What does this fold into?
Amino acid sequence: MDNPVNWFEIAVADLDRASAFYEAILGLPLDHHSMGGADMAWFPMNPTGAGSAGALVKHDTYEPSDKGTVIYFSVDDIEATLARAQEHGGHVLMPKESIGEFGFVGMLTDSEGNRIGLHSRA
It folds into this structure.
């Protein structure tokens, strides 16, 4: 069975600012598109890889929030990612914390005010 989530969308108020934020903290290029009246910045996608792909979305019906669903990004170094987030307008909500055999987590708010999780194995 595949993982049940196959796409996510993170609401943004300023697509350029949010794209720059995520490119800086994750070190990944985002690809800009317009679709169905929404401006989007897609995260890289590997159709045969594990996990989910998704996008930043600016649309009248989307509102950034720090309440509700939390997306967790896999990173190699939570502490370094949290530091980059602070350098680019984000805020640390929870520093790196052990979750036992499942690795570590941290949490931040992004440049738009969304609550975002980080996960690593080390």
Summary: Strands lie at 7-11, 31-35, 38-42, 53-58, 71-74, 91-98, 104-109, 115-120. The longest helix spans residues 15-26. The radius of gyration is 14 Å. Residues 1 and 50 are 11 Å apart (CA to CA).
